[in-house]
Fold:
Amino acid sequence: MLLEFSTFPIGSSESLSKDVSEIIRIIEDSGLPHRIHAMGTIVEGDWDELMELVKKCHMKLRERFSRVTTRIAIDDREGATGRIEGKIKSIEKHLGREIKK
Amino acid sequence: MLLEFSTFPIGSSESLSKDVSEIIRIIEDSGLPHRIHAMGTIVEGDWDELMELVKKCHMKLRERFSRVTTRIAIDDREGATGRIEGKIKSIEKHLGREIKK
Amino acid sequence: MLLEFSTFPIGSSESLSKDVSEIIRIIEDSGLPHRIHAMGTIVEGDWDELMELVKKCHMKLRERFSRVTTRIAIDDREGATGRIEGKIKSIEKHLGREIKK
Amino acid sequence: MLLEFSTFPIGSSESLSKDVSEIIRIIEDSGLPHRIHAMGTIVEGDWDELMELVKKCHMKLRERFSRVTTRIAIDDREGATGRIEGKIKSIEKHLGREIKK
Structure:
């Protein structure tokens, strides 16, 4: 199962990179396959371990901020793993070349 | 905590209202305050009970379909409850009149 | 075409209902069928009129705030109209009763 | 302005990589800075050029499928450019090391 998420405080200072840094550490500590991009993070795992991770990140921000918003997208395909890179490779196969990623 | 979600199968028939109906029943059975609209459902509760509900709905579809996508948005504000109607009322107070909802 | 969106400033005060009120006025002035709920607004129209409306709302916030985030979901089904209420009615038909909305 | 989006047909075959391939070509032809990941594509530009691109991709699918869903997230920060890589670098600076991306 692939899960993409982003979480941030409402009503904090405009720059969020310090807060995001703390969240990156939590994601890395999860040991789950992941990829961080400019609009969120993609993680692969099963439902419970993914949601435990998102909860930890969300609650880390809620320790410091009284209002936090989190956005999640899930793509769950039976029997499919290694999809953080696999979905891109599948597209590259169709195109017959590499793409920018 | 407010959570909005929508879940649907990829690769099924185009019309999803039958599948959605089964999910509505699960949401109603949760006993949580909720509001169903044309693009998803809003539910109020704490993290664990909300995520258990979303998981049940997602997995209900996964019983029948091999690929399911779910989209979630969370607005978590300390000490705030009754917000499914409260957020709308707060806007109406600012406007000095009722809005279409 | 159904479009759901929400837009808010990052780094402003925690309470957003005043800002949201201004956006509600823009939505109402569009004349498009719409429904406001606790997590966003659903509007029905064609691509260009919907996106013009979202842009106006987003830019209204950008006049006052230097960072604004907007989230959009589109459900575009050929030949289908009246879907803000129609999708709910289709579910109610399957259930054989009314639902909370 | 950063925009992340994903678009796919409802009711098509489960595997979407061929359809996605066509969309990748449209994104590349836009000439806008972009990064493709497993859950969507991030593009940088101004509102009108970004939305023209998303419309082209969405409508490409609508040529072949009668129902298409598109999800968009926008992060618009005054005067900020080069953010597809810049946001990641800002986090790496806080962490004092590189992250997986």
